[in-house]
Structures are given as C-alpha cells and as structure tokens.
Automatic annotation (TrEMBL):
The chain crosses the membrane at residues 57-78, 98-122, 165-185. It is a multi-pass membrane protein. Iron-sulfur subunit of the cytochrome bc1 complex, an essential component of the respiratory electron transport chain required for ATP synthesis. The bc1 complex catalyzes the oxidation of menaquinol and the reduction of cytochrome c in the respiratory chain. The bc1 complex operates through a Q-cycle mechanism that couples electron transfer to generation of the proton gradient that drives ATP synthesis. InterPro entries: QcrA_N, Rieske_2Fe-2S, Rieske_2Fe-2S_sf, Rieske_Fe-S_prot. This is Cytochrome bc1 complex Rieske iron-sulfur subunit. Residues 271-340 form the Rieske domain. Belongs to the Rieske iron-sulfur protein family. Residues 23-47 are annotated as: Disordered. Keywords: 2Fe-2S, Cell membrane, Disulfide bond, Electron transport, Iron, Iron-sulfur, Membrane, Metal-binding, Oxidoreductase, Respiratory chain, Transmembrane, Transmembrane helix, Transport. It is found in: Cell membrane.
C-alpha cells in the first residue's frame, strides 16, 4: 500500500498512515455474524394455516390435471371438417379456432398449475431453515448410509408422506402435463411415413416455375441461376384433394453449375442436363423448405437450423443436423426443349425416420 511522506520541522521525513498497511489489516478481524434469526411462517405455527396452504397446493395441481384433460378434449374431441384453408368456410374456421383455444388454454393451465403449485408448496409448507453443509465425497458404507438418511430426511421434511392428497395430485399433474407436449409430436410428421415415398413427379412431367406455372426450357437456365420448380401435373389438384400436401413433397430447387464442377456418382450420369441439376427442397432434418443458394460455393442452406448441402457433390450434408443428402430428381430435355423429369425421386423425401431405410430399399428394388 502507498505511504504518504511528510517533513518534520527539523527536516526529517516522517511516515503518515493515511492508508492502513497490510500488516495492520492482517491483525484486524471481523466476527462472523452468522445466519439471521429464523422467523417462523404462519404455516409453521398455525396448523389451520398449514392445512389451508395444503388445500391451495392441491387445488393448483388439480387445475394442472384439468388443463391437461382440456387439451386432449380440444385435440381429440374437436373435429375440424371441411376445408379449413378456405377462409370463406365459416364452419371449418369456427371449429379450428375452438380447437386452438382449448388446446392453448389446456397447455397454459397444465403448466401454470404444476409450476405455481410446486412454488407455493416450497414457500409455505417445506422447511425454510437456512443451513450450510460442507461437501464431501461419498465413499464408505457409512457415508452412503448417511446420504440415504439425508434423502429420507428431505422426503420427510417435504411432508409428502403425511399429505397423501397433495402427493397424489402432484403425481397426476407431473404425469399428465408433459403428455400434452408428447401428443403434439404426432403432428410433426405424417402418421404413415410411407406417404413420403411418392410425389407428383413421374416420367415426362414438365418442370414449371413456382408460382407462375411457366414451363422451363433448358436454354432458360443460365450458369449460376436457381429456380423453385413444381411438377406441371400439380395444377390438376385443388386444396380439397391435397394440393398443399403434394406441393410440400414435390417442390424442387433447380440450378445450373459448370459440368466440370459436378461430382457424379455411378448410375447418376444422365440425371443432369449439361450441368442443370434438380434436388428436393425439403430439408432432411425436420422438413423446412431450403431456399438459400450460395452460387460461389454451390451450397444450399436451410434457414431453420443451418443444415448445409453441397450441390456440386450430390447435395451431401457438409454442416448441420440433417441426417442425409437431399434426394435428386432425375431430369432430361423433351422434344420441345423443355425440362422434364425422368421419374419420381429414387428415395423418400423429407426428414429421416425409423422406417426410412426400409422404404429406400423398397424403392431401389422397384427401380
């Protein structure tokens, strides 16, 4: 620490102690004040208050259970009939809004009840004494026995053994509330994954621009360009008979690269037209539409989770969580110079799933 120098009247320098030296500081000690005195809660001294708090916690857990049930009523009990893509269909939209309302309220009450219930239980009924314990390794049998005793003490202090109604409602809400989210997993993909095996592409189907529907000639696709294309036959469908579902599976990204930059595997030599290649736009991670093409690196990027595919190397995955390469659509040129498909995809489009390997083998056998 710094020391200030001063001069006595006789010219001799003197030290002043404007700042405490380290030696002096080391000699000074502050007593440990310890923990503040414990202030008991009303539930600690009044059994009626404790019983009331227990009933409140039980009520919150019951609300959570009822919220979970309300979610399933909306999910399974409300039937959305008709074409709910048509905003002019009031009946379908009414039922859809009702279903969304019940599902939203159900999840909200399920999470609110169990969350607030546990917090209220901890604040009003569980012991609130402050304590400090030194950590130590549990190695010997005595230490294990001590650890088991501590766990039993904790369980005893929660009061869960002597409050069976509270325990049972907690168990019910803990089991039911997460199932509301598990139920939604059913909608993350088709109930029957085999529907991803086939699309609207077939022998001789023209590639048309999305959304104009204009056919594309090979001469129109310049080096470095990219188009979002659909099968021409898709225009025969309407919303009522699966237009959106088929479009989601069939959408394709068309690009033209320098043929010398393409790495083509055996059996795919005639799948491109002078460097013009077509690949499914459906990301193989969770099915997001791939729409970003980087011309210099020939990389395709999924905006959802940044899966990156190399178009020059048959759209193999170079980064991100996608599980496999994008399926390639074999194309050729018809007699009028328009780009057409040679066949459907040779493998299922979209994300990987537990039956994918089986479907890939089946489609390979059919080919």
């Amino acid at each position: 620490m710094r020391q200030h120098m001063g001069n006595h009247s006789d010219g001799v320098k003197a030290h002043t102690s404007a700042v405490v030296t380290s030696q002096e500081a080391s000699q000074e000690r502050f007593p440990d004040p310890g923990l503040p005195p414990h202030a008991p809660r009303l539930t600690d001294v009044d059994s009626k208050k404790a019983k009331g708090a227990e009933r409140q916690v039980v009520l919150l857990f019951v609300i959570s259970i009822l919220g979970s049930l309300l979610f399933w009523v909306g999910y399974f009990g409300i039937e959305v009939s008709g074409n709910f893509y048509d905003v002019m269909n009031p009946e379908a939209n009414k039922m859809l809004r009702l279903q969304n309302l019940l599902m939203g309220l159900g999840v909200a009450f399920a999470m609110f009840g169990i969350g607030i219930g546990i917090v209220h239980w901890a604040r009003s009924l569980m012991p609130d004494h402050e304590m400090v314990e030194e950590r130590h390794a549990v190695t010997s049998e005595e230490d294990r026995a001590e650890a088991q005793e501590i766990m039993e003490t904790i369980i005893e202090e929660t009061g869960i053994k002597r409050r069976p109604l509270l325990r049972n409602t907690l168990i019910g809400s803990v089991i039911l509330a997460p199932l509301t989210f598990v139920t939604l997993f059913r909608d993350l993909g088709p109930a029957d994954p085999s529907v991803l095996k086939y699309t609207m592409w077939d022998e001789g189907v023209r590639l048309v621009r999305d959304p104009s529907g204009t056919p594309i000639k090979a001469a129109d696709v310049t080096l470095g360009s990219a188009y979002h294309v659909l099968p021409e036959t898709l225009s025969t469908l309407t919303h009522e008979n699966g237009y959106l579902e088929e479009k989601a599976k069939s959408v394709v990204l068309l690009m033209r690269l320098d043929p010398s930059e393409l790495n083509v595997s055996e059996g795919r030599e005639d799948w491109n037209v002078d460097g013009i290649i077509a690949y499914s736009k459906v990301c193989t991670h969770v099915g997001c539409p791939i729409a970003l093409y980087e011309q210099r690196t020939h990389h395709l990027l999924c905006p959802c989770h940044q899966s990156t595919f190399d178009a020059a190397n048959e759209c193999e995955v170079v980064f991100g969580p996608a599980g496999h390469a994008l399926p390639q659509l074999p194309i050729r040129v018809d007699s009028e110079g328009y780009l057409v498909s040679q066949s459907d995809f040779h493998e299922p489009v979209g994300p990987g799933y537990w039956e994918r390997a089986k479907h890939v083998k089946e489609m390979a056998g059919e080919a």
